[in-house]
Amino acid sequence: MTDRINESVDYLKSKGFGTPEVGIILGTGLGKLLEDVEIEAEASYNHIPYFPTATVEFHKGKLIFGSLQGKKVVIMQGRFHLYEGYSLFDVTFPVRVMKRLGMQRLLVSNASGALNLDFKKAELMLIDDHINLLGGSPLAFHGVDQLGERFVDMSEPYNREMNEIFEEAARRNNITLHKGVYISVPGPELETRAEYRYLKMIGGDAVGMSTVPEVIVANHLGIPVSAISVITDQGDPDNLEKVDIQDILANAAKAEPNMVKLFKELLDKI
Predict the structure, then answer these.
(1) Residue 262 burial (C-beta neighbours within 10 Å; 0-12, 13-18, 19+)
(2) Which of 33, 141, 170, 239 is the most exposed place for a label (fewest CB within 10 A)?
(3) Half-sphere exposure in the Cβ direction for 204 (13 Å, CA)
(4) Using 50, 70 and 90 to split pLDDT, how confident is the model at 52?
(5) What is the structure's pLDDT at 76?
(6) Which positions ≥6 away from 14 have C-beta within 8 Å?
(7) How confident is the model at residue 31 (pLDDT cuts 50, 70, 90)?
(8) Between β-strands 71-77 and 105-114, what pairing exists: parallel, antiparallel or unpaired?
(9) Does domain 2-269 have CATH number 3.40.50.1580?
(10) CB 193 within 8 A of CB 200
């Protein structure tokens, strides 16, 4: 893996990528942050050695380097998922590459369905903890101990300092920012009524198909990480509606200005 990471980094440096302070992973329908980025270099995923290619039509496929709020950032415009046929190794490979470039902190966004029905569509949830139901770990491979401690402590997977900055920024800007537990499932099918009941019963506030692998690897690499979910739909097992991807994208777009504001304010403070 080390050789693959180095080859990817060498390619990115040849394309003008410098040393980022912060890495950002943009989730479904959350690309407006790029409008405020002073872009210095970019590379399509399918040109970067060993990178997977985003196959979901509403996920772009570029790695971008530039400046935002006075910080050097590297941004994943689109991410990878198990449901695209990739392994947990593939899904998290970009995090390892961003770390080798110099990333010191990681911010993650995603779209999720509310299990806690006090959370409404187009609101935001700060992830305080997570439950991994993906059926595996991105650290379960031979040689992982060459890249970091094999038995990674996960008592505080989301950085308290950055989470507190997010919460204060939300209060100051009158933005509803819930806090809760995110459950990651493989997908791509949405949950049944019984599954929504189960996920709520085991302690989930929101459910999605991403984020947890990247957060585990960030902790493995010693990178402070913080993540926010956009609530795009509700998993009410007693009144379950058929999934509408356009409605999900519309709710993500509605929440996006608040997400962008919080990310920018965090970058100002760290």
Answers:
(1) buried
(2) 239
(3) 27
(4) confident
(5) 95
(6) none
(7) confident
(8) unpaired
(9) yes
(10) no
